[in-house]
Design goal:
Layout: E1 23-26, E2 30-33, H1 36-46, H2 56-61, H3 70-84, H4 87-103, E3 108-110, H5 111-127, H6 133-152, H7 159-184, H8 194-220, H9 224-238, H10 240-251, H11 255-261, H12 267-279, E4 286-289, E5 294-296, E6 299-301, E7 306-309, H13 311-314, H14 359-375, E8 377-381, E9 388-391, E10 395-398, E11 401-406
Parallel strand pairs: 2-7
Antiparallel strand pairs: 1-2, 3-11, 4-7, 5-6, 8-11, 9-10
This protein binds protoporphyrin IX containing FE.
Length: about 425
């Protein structure tokens, strides 16, 4: 349901301010809706009716499919994610992140790509669990191909890369379809986001729409979580004083407490993560098609016309944020001099009714990654002064490469400090 892209219009973008209200045409074709109120209203109107399109086969035969609302699908996922946010699934998620970091020890790596790999491979079983190594490799290849396309920009890929991307996408479709069939036959059940789709909605959705639902989540976990993880790594590496504060906080509690209470036992790390998500919100722009005729601040959009919204620019709007371009985790403290705006002025996870379903898990995953980077691993940058963040499709640390090194685990008061 979410479309994202458009790095080409980024160059001239500014967050709305006292002089411009953030709603204007770009190139006469696309309406930029950069103001928080306007974007929130446009999204609410555009997605008020979230009925899924008819199944492909029914479209061909000119008949109606059973009606399914995207809200039903989302609500099943949100319930399942509450279970997936419990201690044991979080321990497993942390273990998967640690094993990707372990696998990179001593190799020269681009940390931004490593962050994508850590985030995606750890989240994959949350979406579809129980896949073989070969099947997981196809899904990972598909995710990497999509990211490469985003990174390279339109036309920036070689023919070979385009061909590999098609193959990976087709294979991903086959793997997920086969898994849905296995689950439907009752061959196995798993605690993941695919299971409730099969158990509760498969007869109404049919195989194609079920596949599309699962691949929507696979696409969603292939971009923003890894981009946020890369920016978290960047901020930790560039700010040793914050890394030391977080290390102290993590050392004060056993890891079990972190896994049990989510972010509550690490309030400073949580503030740090919130600031990473505000400062470097991904994706930078999301392109939306008008599903109904829309009027946005007197600009009319016909069905099918495009408008663009930007979580990043809303989170940098100086009319609502104090000193928005400064990275300051303390702005999230209870006693901070300026109150941080809430609601639709703070949208690292987008807007209702299509806001990210994984906001809670995504935030906890970042705190757990910070835990690993403060207690088990450290990043040694090849050129610390050169590293910087570029704003492209997602915020992207550049010249951010080097080596992952092991650390001696801090004494957290338990024998099991490393999940
Ligand atoms: C830090 C991590 C994450 C960030 C920054 C993030 C960000 C976003 C954003 C900005 C959107 C677009 C919302 C909109 O359309 O207004 C989105 C959508 C979505 N995200 Fe996330 N996300 C994260 C983690 C996750 C995780 C862990 C999952 C699932 C396990 C997930 C699943 C989804 C899905 C399914 C959608 C589409 C929702 C819809 O169209 O109804 N995300 N995410």
């Amino acid at each position: 349901m979410t479309e994202r892209d458009d790095p080409d219009v980024l160059a001239n973008l500014r967050a709305p301010n006292a002089e411009h209200d953030g709603v204007f045409w770009h190139g006469g074709r696309r309406l930029m809706v950069l103001d928080a109120d306007a974007a929130s209203r446009a999204n609410a109107e555009n997605f008020a009716d979230l009925t899924l399109p008819d199944r492909f086969v029914d479209q061909l035969l000119g008949r109606r499919s059973p009606v399914v609302s995207w809200r039903q699908v989302r609500s099943l996922w949100l319930s399942q994610l509450r279970v997936l946010g419990a201690e044991e699934p979080l321990r497993a998620l942390t273990g998967r992140m640690a094993s990707v970091l372990d696998g990179s020890l001593g190799r020269h790596v681009d940390f931004a790509w490593l962050a994508h790999e850590v985030a995606f491979r750890a989240l994959l079983p949350v979406v579809v669990d129980g896949l073989s190594t070969v099947e997981q490799a196809w899904l990972t290849r598909d995710a990497i191909a999509k990211l490469t396309r985003l990174d390279a920009g339109p036309g920036g890929q070689t023919r070979r890369q385009r061909w590999e991307a098609v193959v990976a996408q087709v294979q991903t479709g086959r793997v997920v379809r086969r898994e849905i069939r296995r689950r439907a036959r009752g061959d196995r059940t798993r605690l993941d986001l695919t299971q409730p789709v099969v158990d509760r909605l498969l007869p109404a959705l049919g195989p194609d729409r079920a596949l599309e639902a699962v691949t929507t989540v696979l696409t969603a976990i292939a971009g923003p979580p890894g981009a946020a993880a890369g920016c978290l790594m960047y901020e930790l590496a560039k700010r040793p004083e914050w890394a030391a504060t977080l290390t102290e906080e993590f050392a004060a509690h056993p890891v079990e407490q972190l896994l049990r209470s989510g972010t509550r036992s690490a309030p400073t790390a949580h503030r740090f993560v919130k600031e990473v998500l505000r400062m470097w919100s991904a994706p930078l722009l999301m392109t939306r098609s008008a599903r109904i005729p829309l009027t946005v601040r007197a600009h009319r959009l016909a069905v099918g016309q495009h408008y663009l919204v930007s979580p990043y620019l809303v989170n940098h709007d100086e009319r609502h944020w104090s000193d928005p371009d400064t990275f300051d985790p303390d702005r999230w403290s209870a006693g901070a001099p300026h109150r941080t705006p809430g609601g639709h002025y703070h949208v690292p996870f987008g807007w209702a009714p299509t806001a990210c379903i994984g906001a809670g898990l995504g935030s906890v995953q970042l705190v757990l990654l910070a835990y690993l980077l403060c207690t088990r691993f450290r990043l040694e940058l090849r050129a610390p002064d050169a590293a910087r963040v570029a704003l492209s499709a997602v915020p992207r640390p550049l010249d951010f490469d080097g080596w992952v090194r092991p650390r001696h685990p801090v004494d957290t008061g338990t024998t099991d400090s490393c999940p």
